[in-house]
Design brief:
This protein has about 160 residues and is of the alpha+beta class. The protein has a domain of about 110 residues: Aminopeptidase. It is built from five helices and seven strands. A four-stranded antiparallel beta sheet has the order 1-2-3-4, sandwiched between helices.
């Protein structure tokens, strides 16, 4: 059983390394090798430390080791990341992390969650209740426009 906690600034290098392993593992069947290589080579965005500092990042740990994380922009409702270690996938960890982000969004009064999902992640987000609104090319910092799907999940606000 994994535990959940808010991410800290000290977690940032571990989170980015986990993300890179997850991208290499999960995206290889959906994107050309040159795209995956470029995607994995970029450093973490400047926004990641700010989102973590704002309290919008949650990690899952098992035996003191981070096995997954998810990041929410608490101002806009955009999910910026949701990654799980390849050897820990398909165990419900990412879904639990998303549920935590959804609770955070509810607490902020946000009307929806949204994201641009990589092609490999679309079925996961659909199972989590997100609706695919449109296919798009996401202008990634790696220099490639990544084929992706814009998705959202409307949130019912308490009355």
């Amino acid at each position: 059983m994994s535990s959940r906690r808010l991410a800290t600034q000290a977690d940032l290098p571990t989170l980015w390394e986990l993300r890179t392993r997850a991208v290499r593992h999960g995206c290889a069947a959906h994107y050309p090798p040159a795209v995956v290589d470029a995607w994995c080579a970029v450093p973490a965005p400047a926004s990641l430390p700010m989102l973590v500092q704002a309290g919008g990042a949650v990690v899952a740990e098992e035996e003191g080791r981070i096995v997954g994380y998810a990041v929410l922009n608490l101002d806009s409702g955009e999910i910026n990341a949701a990654f799980v270690e390849p050897g820990h996938q398909r165990r419900g960890i990412a879904l639990q992390l998303l549920q935590r982000l959804e609770s955070m969004a509810h607490a902020r009064g946000l009307p929806r969650l949204f994201l641009s999902a990589s092609l490999n992640a679309v079925p996961f987000y659909e199972r989590a209740g997100f609706l695919a609104l449109r296919e798009e090319l996401y202008p990634h910092r790696c220099g490639f426009d990544l084929a992706s799907v814009f998705m959202e999940k409307p949130l019912r606000l308490p009355s």
